[in-house]
Structures are given as C-alpha cells and as structure tokens.
From TrEMBL:
This is Ferrichrome receptor FcuA. It comes from the Bacteria. The keyword Metal-binding does not apply. It is found in: Cell outer membrane. InterPro entries: Beta-barrel_TonB (IPR000531), Beta-barrel_TonB_sf (IPR036942), TonB-dep_rcpt-like (IPR039426), TonB_rcpt_CS (IPR010917). GO terms for molecular function: siderophore uptake transmembrane transporter activity. Keywords: Cell outer membrane, Ion transport, Iron, Iron transport, Membrane, Receptor, Signal, TonB box, Transmembrane, Transmembrane beta strand, Transport. It is a multi-pass membrane protein. Residues 24-148 form the TonB-dependent receptor-like beta-barrel domain. PANTHER family: FERRICHROME IRON RECEPTOR-RELATED (PTHR32552), FERRICHROME OUTER MEMBRANE TRANSPORTER_PHAGE RECEPTOR (PTHR32552:SF68). GO terms for cellular component: cell outer membrane. The keyword Metal-binding does not apply. It comes from Sulfurospirillum diekertiae.
Length: 192
C-alpha cells in the first residue's frame, strides 16, 4: 500500500467582481487552506484501491461588500473524496471489475452564502477485459455504467455567467452545470 504524506496547502489570491458601484475591480482576497491525503495499492492479491480525501477551508476577506466578507467562496466544497476499487478475477485474470465512489460536499451558490448546492455521492461500475486474441498486440475492451443510482446533482458551480464573465457579487450571478445522469460507455483500445 502506497500512502502519500498529508499535503497541507494555503493559496491566497485576489478576488475581483462587479461591486455595488458598477465597477469591476479587486474586491478582496480569497484564501484556500486545507489538507489532502491520498493512498493506493493492493490490499489483497486480487484487490487494488486508489483513493483520496481533501478538506478545504475557503474564506473571502477584505470584501468591499459587507455580506460577502468572511464567507465561503462560491463552488468550493469543504470535503471531497474518491475511492476506486479494482478486482482482478482470480480464475480469469484478463477481466478486471471496478467500482468508483465520488463524494462532493455542499457548495455556496451565492457570495453571501444564503444558497447552497447540495452535497452528492455517485457510484460508477465498470469492467475491463484485456486480450491479445483480437486485433494487434493488445486489445482492451471497456464497459462502464456511470452514476448507477441516477443521482441528480450540480457538477459545477461557478461565480459568473455562461459568457465567461466574472460574477456580479451585488446581484449574486452564478452559473451551475447539471451533472450527468446514469449513462453507459463502451470502448475498444487497440495497441499495434
């Protein structure tokens, strides 16, 4: 098992938006600080795990609009986690089954933190088959069912609008993108 050391981080950057006065300018600072932990490896002969957890504390400070000061940044969850498990079928080593679990915590939608996008949890299932019997030197067949529970969620929450412009903090302009529903993907990879 390979375990990464805890990665502590702190990122501070100016934040700019359109204020009450109608002027787009730097209106304060956004500070993101937290810790990230990742691990991967075989936990049994046929089972491998890959995962990570991130905690992020975000703050807007020095904001010129009082109800934005000391609030959480738009679209930034406190918690995110992912765990991928792969099982190699012992009697049929060319076949690997997988499950991937994703968690994202709630995220602020508006600068004053009065509205939130709910947290969400999705699960993906997959299978991978490797053979030299079809095309070329190596052929990999993949099949995945993503978001098997058909969870409804906001995949992206961004300050701004669809034109790519930064948000208007006074108006609380935010763009949200709906996450993919249940879907099936299949692929063939051929190496010559």
């Amino acid at each position: 098992m390979l375990i990464s050391p805890r990665l502590f981080f702190q990122i501070k950057r100016p934040t700019a938006y359109l204020g009450y006065d109608g002027i787009y300018e730097i209106q304060g600072d956004q500070t993101n600080q937290g810790v990230e932990f990742m691990a991967s490896g075989k936990v049994a002969e046929s089972v491998a795990l890959f995962g990570g957890v991130t905690y992020t504390d975000t703050d807007i400070t020095g904001a010129k609009i009082a109800n934005v000061d000391n609030k959480q940044a738009i679209g930034m969850p406190e918690w995110q986690a992912n765990l991928l498990a792969e099982y190699t079928v012992p009697s049929f080593k060319e076949l690997v089954l997988s499950s991937n679990f994703h968690y994202t915590g709630k995220r602020a939608i508006d600068p004053a933190n009065t509205q939130w996008a709910d947290s969400y949890f999705t699960t993906d299932l997959g299978a991978r088959y490797i053979t030299k019997q079809l095309f070329g030197d190596k052929t990999i067949l993949r099949l995945s069912v993503n978001n098997i529970t058909n969870e409804k969620y906001w995949a992206g929450v961004y300050a701004g609008n669809v034109a790519g412009l930064d948000g208007d903090a006074a108006a609380g302009t935010t763009t949200l993108f709906l996450g993919d529903g249940r879907n099936v993907t299949a692929s063939i990879e051929v190496k010559f």
